[in-house]
Amino acid sequence: MEILRTDQSVGLYDMIKHSKDKTNPVNPIRHWLLSSASKRLSSDGLNTLAYHRSNVLALPLYTWVQVRIDVEKVVMESKFFSIAQKKKMLQAFVPPRGNQTADPL
């Protein structure tokens, strides 16, 4: 048996086929995010995310932690996005004021 590996400079990923999720809009700058991931790797991620824990539900097999993320604040304070990219992201992900979705819990 022979194991073949791609060159380390090449990054590959695969996705399981699925239907479009209507509650998860397409990120308008997703291609830029993928191409710039190596620049953001050390300072952009869960360790820098600003959130507020709103609920914790401890169940026998898992714990569900519900958080609220101020997307507008995260996007506007990011040093990685241009003003045009920030505007695109805010239009796609921040609902107009007074049009907030219901809390699922």
Structural descriptors:
105 residues, alpha+beta, two-stranded antiparallel sheet, extended, Nucleotide-diphossugar_trans
Structural overview:
The chain is of the alpha+beta class and 105 residues long. It has a domain at 70-95. The protein contains four helices and two strands. It has helices at residues 30-35, 37-40, 71-77, 83-93, and strands spanning 51-58, 63-69. The protein has a two-stranded antiparallel sheet. Helix 3 runs antiparallel to helix 4 (83-93). The longest helix has 11 residues, at 83-93. The N and C termini lie far apart (50 Å).
What's the SSE pattern?
Answer: HHEEHH
Shape estimate: extended
Structural Rg: 18 Å
How many beta-strand runs?
2
Average pLDDT works out at: 79
Strand arrangement across the biggest beta sheet: 1-2
Distance linking N and C termini: 50 Å
Please give the largest β-sheet: 2 strands, antiparallel
Strand content: 5-15%
SS element count, helices = 4
Q: Give the structural class.
A: alpha+beta
Low-confidence stretches are none
Percent of residues in helices: 25-40%
GO cellular component, one term: Golgi apparatus
GO molecular function, one term: galactosyltransferase activity
Protein name: Beta-1,4-galactosyltransferase
Organism: Plakobranchus ocellatus
